[in-house]
Amino acid sequence: MRCLLSLAAVACIVGCGRAPVEKQEQAMQDLLFLHFDNLNNESEIEKFDAKRSSPAKDVVPPLGLTFSTYMWHPQGVILSNVRCAACEARHPVLVYRSEPLACTVCGSPDRDKASGKMTAPLVRGQLQRPDLEAAFGKNNVKAMFERVSAEKGDLVAAVRYVRREWVFDDRASVVINPKALETTPADSLQKPDSYFSGGFHRLDAAYVATTLFMYDGDLNQIDRDTVARYLASENGVLPEAKTWRVGPAVAVEEPIRPWNAPRLGARSF
Fold first, then answer.
1. Domain locations in the chain?
2. What is the per-residue burial (b if ≥16 Cβ within 10 Å, else e) of 77-113?
């Protein structure tokens, strides 16, 4: 559906003259959805192909495979260094999409029994970017999609996303619900409180990535050097277009370093 909408938008721009910036932005976001869907699908295909050729066909995903997953949304905001007031756990990175977020360490906040809504969330819902910047600091709030320029009719946007890298851990085990112990065969248990799965892929590293895309009826990525110069500028000034190189490019990535914090939120990166 997204692909059909994008093709319709492109046809309108080509056949009816250039569309307003807002229409171009929507068409660009549709193509970005497709771009990140394709990246995640390629990881799934890689896992499938590796499993098919692996001698250990009972392991899913197969041994030796390292793959990445990508998280992006046009209305998403990346929050850094969010601290829980209740337990003081620090969340290195959270992805906020207007829905309230709870602390994954202490479970704060409580929920109202009648409505089921959070009564004191880690991050309140329906906050706009100025509200988030006031609460967490401007440097800790980054939009996943941010229009940078629309000069000469070509739309340029800064795109930020979270890339997670997964590696196989043959010693991995998972804690299971006590109720499942009643139906789990005893010989499948490594310990009384955990189920040995024979290993599985675990999160090894996570990155906040930034890149630039240009939309001129098609989606084009701008080179890493230009992105680095854009990020190094004081007010996010885009370098001159004549210095860009357009085509498949590598994003500028900043590793998320959870080991710098004494207490961290599980699944917070």
1. 2-74+144-260
2. bbbbebbbeeeebbbbbbbbeeebbbbbbeebbeeee
